[in-house]
């Protein structure tokens, strides 16, 4: 699991510029991937919530949960996008992450909860018996259940 960056719905990429430089990744490649990912975010948003307005998290406590933080760039992109919406507090929670990722992310949130920071960390999946992608249908079903609750 090696990320050169991540992007959230606000469109601002969060990049690992050291890695981009060392791998000689072109600006054109980055721009293309950012555009592709933004289109995927729009597709998923339409599929998951339809035409409902965006989240109103102003002055609220927001809990961001990730199944594992490898590089932390995806979580950081989400946190940065949420910060623009002015929540009262952002809490980031994950069951597992490398210590250096926790150290990098901790200053970006009001609280960070991580249950395990193993020394030998190669990929999030190594800490799960089953580690598959959540399907669009599972996401839609969960959102539907939350709306009823």
Automatic annotation (TrEMBL):
<feature type="domain" description="Phosphoribosyltransferase">
    <location>
        <begin position="52"/>
        <end position="103"/>
    </location>
</feature>
<dbReference type="InterPro" id="IPR029057">
    <property type="entry name" value="PRTase-like"/>
</dbReference>
<dbReference type="Pfam" id="PF00156">
    <property type="entry name" value="Pribosyltran"/>
</dbReference>
<dbReference type="InterPro" id="IPR000836">
    <property type="entry name" value="PRTase_dom"/>
</dbReference>
<protein>
    <recommendedName>
        <fullName>Phosphoribosyltransferase domain-containing protein</fullName>
    </recommendedName>
</protein>
